[in-house]
Amino acid sequence: MTTAVFFDLDLTLLRYTADFETIFDRAVPNAPKGAYDRYLSVFFDAFEDLAVDPYAVGFEVITDEFDIGDDPEALVARYAEAELAATTVPASAREALVRVADRRPTGILTNGAPAVQRAKLERHDLTDLVDAVVVSNDPAVASRKPDSGIFEAAETALPADDYVYVGDTYDEDVVGARNAGWEAYHVGDDGPGGDPTDDAPDDPAAVESVADAVVRILGEDGA
Prior knowledge:
This protein is of the alpha/beta class.
């Protein structure tokens, strides 16, 4: 029996050293008041509509509506570089990914714009560690977590008997994976047991880190 292991990217394998408003300010210095909020609204609408490049959609709108002083293409490029520069991969997460990839078919399954998500993998030398990369807004996928379509695309990309997913968002990652018939591990603080004031019982999927998830996936002997 072959078990494939997929990982979420943002806030699971990757961490951010700056929030998205700070990243925007680095890409668009001295932006007019309201430009960021308008950009964010348009970006997320386009993102949820599975636009291949929601960044371009957002910057096209704000350059039409605000005095930005730059063309959309230049802003997209600056923003993408600023976002990439604000990402980091903890050593423990990298080591855990390497450990799984040595023993199981391994992939990335992530919501996002395909060019930017793949650029993050390249920047942190993760691409060659995995066997498949599945991104929601890739036209060949066109499905976002928690919808089953993105998990079905992952199964097509990396055939196996069973599947395991590791992600940080309970409703998108854990619930989505389980609804697709996958096992799941949750490294985030949301969901059952994530809030210390929540009386709901801890979900057995909850782990403290990617490394802890990998220990449970591989078993104590790592076989």
